[in-house]
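Quick one before lunch.
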Amino acid sequence: MAVNLKRSSGTGASTEQIQRRRMLGWLTGLGLFGSGILSAVSNFVFIKPRATYGQPQRFSIGKPDDFPPGTRATLGARSLCVVREGNKIAALSTTCTHLGCIVGVSDTGFACPCHGSRFDQDGTVTGGPAPRPLPWYKLTLAPNGELEVDKDIEITPGSYLSL
Ligand code: FES
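Model of the FE2/S2 (inorganic) cluster complex:
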């Protein structure tokens, strides 16, 4: 008695099915590999800190004696001007409120070299395109006797620290 070992679909169709399965297996593996890579990259991007470490916004500028009465000293690296009148002292920003250029001290207050904004001694706009006065920053006397500026805290213009 002869036994028929052929499949009902024939030998050619069986080979096609095997090739199709292999190809689907490869595609599945490739998809899993790709999603694993994407997952690893997105996890890395998520975990990686995005903090930028710029200059600290609270810092010491020295002792009050470093700024004798009548001082209008610009601290270029800090974009500040320290103004002392008698026993009162304040820290004003020297960053122009128009487009951020650094203003210079002038006879009448401050002048911006970029587009000509002018500010009086208190930082009030007296001319040019600047939309706001120069900010005044919180200034405190630390326990070690040094003056500390906090550029994160703006105060009302004209609010001097009494020494
Ligand atoms: S940046 Fe100062 S006037 Fe434009």
